[in-house]
Amino acid sequence: MCDLMPASQPAEKIGKMKKLRRTLSESFRSIAFKKEDSGFDEICVTKMSTRSCQGTDSVIKPLDTIPEDKKVRVQRTQSGFDPFEKPASQVKRVHSENNACINAKSSSASKESPKLRRHSSPSSPTSPKFGKADSYEKLEKLGEGSYATVYKGKSKVNGKLVALKVIRLQEEEGTPFTAIREASLLKGLKHANIVLLHDIIHTKETLTLVFEYVHTDLCQYMDKHPGGLHPDNVKLFLFQLLRGLSYIHQRYILHRDLKPQNLLISDTGELKLADFGLARAKSVPSHTYSNEVVTLWYRPPDVLLGSTDYSTCLDMWGVGCIFIEMIQGVAAFPGMKDIQDQLERIFLVIGTPSEDTWPGVNSLPHFKPDRFTVYSAKKLRQAWNKLGYVDHAEELASRFLQCFPKNRLSAQAALNHEYFSNLPPRLCELQDMSSIFTVPNVKLQTESGDSIQVCARRNSHGKASSGSKH
After folding, report:
1. 218-456 maps to which CATH number?
2. Which residue in the list 41, 134, 199, 257 is annotated as catalytic?
């Protein structure tokens, strides 16, 4: 049974606590006065002394941020620093650890030459850093658009080649929304088949997006191999395209501008989705979006007819167009005049839609049945004969090129199509950041006219002869 505490004891304890509080307050004030008199700006303390001392006059900084010339002075200050006379053993242990830490750093620093220390220290103001414009060297201009210029560059941080997308900022207009959208989306996308955003540099005049450097794009690649690509290479490029799209679609992101120019090809054969300036994160429930998206040749009929209520099926029409272009060697629907001409070319092959084949088509803003010639649907191989030379290619293409958006095959479902049945099963088990070329026996085939492996074309001087683009 517990003993009862005498009535007088609490009063005595409260008196002792008040006396201790006054003593501690005086100790803190004396420490603050010492710091002001000595002119020292920093006091280096361990986590234990940080918890014990919450003096408002002390500026507590990590040890690594203290300049070399002040570390010795801090050491001398701490050797006599004893705010609590009891228990002395605890305070002595804390200070001895601090002194040992400071001495070790000081001795190691003294062995280094000033030049070496200046360049090796990550906190040095003269060393190249990410996020700084002077950390990258421009080598050559790769291309120029309406609001951005792309340069080939080199990182001074790690020596790697990069692509610098320099976006010009207009004071009255601010940062282009497409640049903000591209940067914000790409920061969260990490996949082997999506171009990697390394860095973002913001100055008063420009916004620079620093990408991994990729040697060419699918458009340039097909230009170098007219008449259609090797069927096995088409399959590997299409698989990578679907892999990247499946990744972003699962995150409710639409690319909205699929075309060969926006599909980069590395020197090892990796295909990477790029240029997310028109991409949108699609919310649930569905919002309406602009119908001024996707380059005309790769724009689906629902968008051409004015629909603004679309989902991932928007991108899948573009996949079908690119698939046919890789196999046949020509654009699937190369409209030469306007939207009307583009739709006529599509309906000529796919068939003119009606409420029976496309529920709701009559309610689309630009669909007027009397404006279009009525065509019946054809077999795709009648328009593009090379589809008939590859097993299951025509059937897969027809699943992409559906006028009614909801009938189009998704990217994830397409990866399991019979067209890919002869590829190693391991390709479907890869981690997001793993290249398909890490799987044994997966490689690009030599294209007609190439003397050596297509993914490493070189001229007589041993330099890569492929085009360049980020």
Report:
1. 1.10.510.10
2. 257
